[in-house]
Structure formats: structure tokens, C-alpha cells
């Protein structure tokens, strides 16, 4: 029996020209998570990440926070753990007037549109440019889970994004595809979820926890 730890990346740079990098808060969140794992004596037999910069930076922050140095496992980048393109999804919807970006209303509208676009993508109503179909996206996540089950044992870490992690939970629970949207939207930065696994299956153990932020101020908790 092994344990798969799925960690969503630290806070990225939402609203900036380059979203795919950690904010200063995201860096601190990642380091604090690594320090927490080290304090519990937790080590990983394998580390898988997506290929995005925020995934690599989160793992780097965790390793630095844990003070593992050269003893840190070498992360294996896997494109099956990359996030969907939220902007491509929203662009695939009919054009509409939007509030200014960077404002509270603009932020809320972005996620309202994203929910709608995800549902239409899953139903095959829209075909966002440069993106796989929903079925292909889910199949890539399923392939990563199968690789973990058949190749690894002990403690395995995945550092990824909300979409792949929520999809993994949806697959493990055999839940309707739309479940992914609700799981995805509430997943917090550097949240830890756990699956137990053996050669036959995964089982959900915990979801969206922040043990490393217990006692921290509220501004440590973020979603984007």
C-alpha cells in the first residue's frame, strides 16, 4: 500500500501578464509546506510534476523549505499533469462585455465564465483552440494515476494544478465529470490531498487540506 500526495501549486500571478510564476506569497506557501513535511519526517520515493513553471517553482520551494538540499528527489515532469487553458476556454464562448480585469467584479466574472466554459467543454459544445477534448484531458490524468499504481510504491508526490488534481479525484470517486468543476473551484493553493493506492486501485483519503497553514494568518490562504 502506498500513499499519493497531490499538491496544488502555490499562489500564481493571477491578473499579471505572466500567470505562470509564483507570487511572493506562493513562494512562502511552498516553503512552509516543505518545512511541514520535513517536520513530520515525510520523504518521497518519487516526485511527479506538470511541466509548467509554477509546478517546478512549487516543488523547488518545498525542497528548499524542507532543507533537503541534494537529497531532494529529482522531479519527473509529466505533461499529463498540466492545467487546461482557462483563457482558451473563455475565448471559446460567445463574445460578451466584460468588466475591467483586476477588479473584484472582473475576478468574479472570470470564474463565472470559466465554470460555464468548463461545463460546455465537457459536454463537447465548445472546442477551445489549442486544447485537447475533455475526454483526452481526463485520459491523460488517468494515465498518470495508472503509472503511479503500476510503477511506484511508498510515498509519491504530485505537484500540479487544480484541474488535473480535481480530475484525479473525480476519476477515483467514479463521479460525474461535472464534479470536477466544483472540486476544482474550491481547491486552495498548496492544498494537500491524499490517495492510498495499490496495484489495483486508488482510494481518496483526504481532500484540500492545509495542515502547514494551521495557525497562520488568513492572508496565507489563497485560491488562484
Describe what you observe in this structure.
With about 220 residues, the protein is of the alpha/beta class. It folds into 2 domains: about 1-85 and about 135-220, 3-Layer(aba) Sandwich (Rossmann fold); about 85-130, no CATH class. About 40% of the residues lie in helices and about 15% in strands. It contains 7 helices and 6 strands, in the order E-H-E-H-E-H-H-H-E-H-H-E-E. It has helices at about 25-40, 55-65, 85-90, 105-125, 135-150, 160-170, 180-185; strands at about 1-10, 45-50, 75, 155-160, 190-195, 200-210. A 6-stranded mixed beta sheet has the order 3-2-4-1-5-6. A hairpin with a 4-residue loop joins strand 5 (about 190-195) and strand 6 (about 200-210). Helix 1 (about 25-40) packs across helix 2 and helix 6 crosses helix 7. The mean pLDDT is about 95. It comes from Tibeticola sediminis. This is Broad specificity phosphatase PhoE.
Amino acid at each position: 500500500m502506498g500513499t499519493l500526495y497531490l499538491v496544488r501549486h502555490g499562489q500564481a500571478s493571477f491578473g499579471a501578464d505572466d500567470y505562470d510564476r509564483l507570487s511572493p506569497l506562493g513562494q512562502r506557501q511552498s516553503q512552509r509546506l516543505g518545512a511541514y513535511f520535513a517536520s513530520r519526517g515525510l520523504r518521497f520515493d518519487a516526485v511527479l510534476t506538470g511541466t509548467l513553471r509554477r509546478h517546478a517553482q512549487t516543488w523547488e520551494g518545498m525542497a528548499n523549505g524542507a532543507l533537503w538540499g541534494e537529497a531532494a528527489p529529482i522531479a519527473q515532469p509529466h505533461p499529463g499533469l498540466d492545467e487546461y487553458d482557462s483563457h482558451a476556454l473563455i475565448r471559446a464562448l460567445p463574445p460578451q462585455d466584460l468588466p475591467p480585469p483586476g477588479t473584484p467584479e472582473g475576478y468574479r466574472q472570470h470564474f463565472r465564465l470559466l465554470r460555464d466554459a468548463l461545463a460546455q467543454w465537457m459536454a463537447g459544445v465548445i472546442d477551445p483552440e489549442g486544447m485537447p477534448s475533455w475526454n483526452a484531458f481526463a485520459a491523460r490524468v488517468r494515465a498518470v494515476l495508472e503509472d503511479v499504481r503500476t510503477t511506484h510504491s511508498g510515498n509519491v508526490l504530485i505537484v500540479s494544478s487544480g484541474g488535473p488534481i480535481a480530475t484525479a479525484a473525480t476519476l477515483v470517486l467514479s463521479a460525474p465529470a461535472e464534479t470536477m468543476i466544483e472540486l476544482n473551484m474550491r481547491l486552495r493553493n498548496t492544498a494537500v490531498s491524499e490517495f492510498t493506492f495499490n496495484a489495483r486501485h486508488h482510494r481518496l483519503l483526504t481532500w484540500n487540506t492545509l495542515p502547514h497553514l494551521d495557525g497562520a494568518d488568513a492572508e496565507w490562504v489563497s485560491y488562484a
